Amino acid sequence: MIGYGAIARAVHTGLRTDAQALIRQVLVRETRCAAIRQATGDDVGVISSVDALHTDTRFVLECAGHEAVRAYGAEILARGISLGIVSVGVLADDELHEALRRAAAGSGAQLVILPGAIGGTDAIAAAGPENLTMVTYTGRKPPMAWAGSPAEDQFDLAGITEPTVLFSGTAREAARQYPKNANVVATVALAGRGFDDTKVSLVADPGANGNTHEIAARGPLLDFSFTTGGRPLAANPRTSALTAMSAVRTLRNLTGTVVV
Ligand SMILES: NC(=O)C1=CN([C@@H]2O[C@H](COP(=O)(O)OP(=O)(O)OC[C@H]3O[C@@H](n4cnc5c(N)ncnc54)[C@H](O)[C@@H]3O)[C@@H](O)[C@H]2O)C=CC1
Ligand SMILES: O=C([O-])CC(=O)C(=O)O
Question: Does the keyword Cell cycle apply (predicted)?
Answer without folding.
Answer: no
